[in-house]
Amino acid sequence: MKENEVQKWLFEVVHPAKDKNVVELGMVEKVEIAGDTVTVTLAFSRHRDPLAEYLIQAVKAAIIRNAPKGTAAEVKTVLRDEGKKPSTGLDLGNEELEHVGRVIAVASGKGGVGKSTVAVNLAIALAREGYKVGLADADVYGPSVPKMTGTEGVVPEAVKEDDKDIILPVEKYGVKWMSIGYFAAPEQALIWRGPMACNALKQMILQVRWGELDFLLIDMPPGTGDIHISLVHDIPLDGAVIVSTPQDVALADVEKGVNMFRNPNVNKPILGLVENMAWFTPAEHPDEKYYIFGRDGGARMAAKYDIPLLGQIPLVQSIREGGDSGEPIALGSGPDALAFLDLAGKL
Predict the structure, then answer these.
(1) Cβ neighbourhood burial of 284 (10 Å; 0-12, 13-18, 19+)
(2) I need a surface site. Which of 62, 69, 150, 327 has the fewest CB within 10 A?
(3) What is the largest CA-CA distance in the chain?
(4) Burial letters 93-112, b for 16+ CB under 10 A, else e
């Protein structure tokens, strides 16, 4: 057992009156592991919480439910002045990005266009080209990197340096991965308001020991909301790659994404556009192309906004299967893998 594992279990303990778990509320003051005993210290305000006893028992139950058989659970409580805010550990600078060459956002105007599929396979393709690569899964509402890389259930290590916790990324396929999905159960819905999601995002990027990288890709959530604004203001972003499908409804949202990055208050370069699901090719007829979402919509949009068209990725079953199995298609040598290697070369 490790402290990070216990913290993950405590996400299950939700304060009924506040609809947030005890970790998000800053109530977990300390986690101690001694032999077969886990001791959690909960901080309460001096104003008595009528649900204090319920939360204490719920914490014990979460530990017993998840820990190895025979583990004992203890809960201590401390009182905190109401005027004293709990430490969030988010006094973060850019020290962990000092040895990162380029920080690139992989964004989309809407969900469902395969942005995470492109981000994961692009990261692996860059690594295959000999670059040192990391990927931060900033889609805090729907983290998919653990599933797509076969790293579900992994709990990243953490080290303490100068009273600050540093998270060590998960390494697989020659890429360093980090995702909020490593700290929450796969079935757990992350119901977070904007500021809380932004704080989680910063931790997934600024509190991680990336080391020396040529590229750090950031898999953005879809849309143009709080998280995107927080990212471009607080992270030294070098540019963005936008992913879309050829259909008009997706391209309409791409325009919003382009305008966001080109807004004078944001002003980040758009490095190119990737047209995903550009055509459908049956495995048994590899030379046939069916343009089920429309033809060359991404190419026209790229030309309209003077953005390089970095690649057109086909809709083939093997790409979906690779994402579901945790073995991304960019690891292979077929034409579908070569599409991502070509994309990496152009980037």
Answers:
(1) exposed
(2) 69
(3) 71
(4) eeebbeebebbbbbbbbbbe
Residues 243, 244, 245, 249, Cα dihedral to 10°:
160
**What does the pLDDT profile of the chain (347 residues) look like in tens digits?**
788 788 888 988 888 777 788 888 888 888 999 989 999 999 887 666 777 888 898 899 999 999 999 899 999 998 876 554 444 444 567 888 999 999 999 988 667 788 899 999 999 999 999 999 999 998 776 778 899 999 988 888 888 887 777 889 999 999 999 988 887 655 555 544 555 556 667 778 888 999 999 999 999 877 666 666 767 777 888 999 998 888 766 677 777 778 888 887 778 899 999 988 877 877 777 778 888 877 878 788 888 888 999 988 887 666 777 777 778 888 888 778 888 999 999 99
Two tokens, residue 92: 């973060």
- State the pTM of this model: 0.70
Contact predicate 210/99, CB 8 Å = yes
| Distance (Å, whole) CA 176 – CA 156 | 11
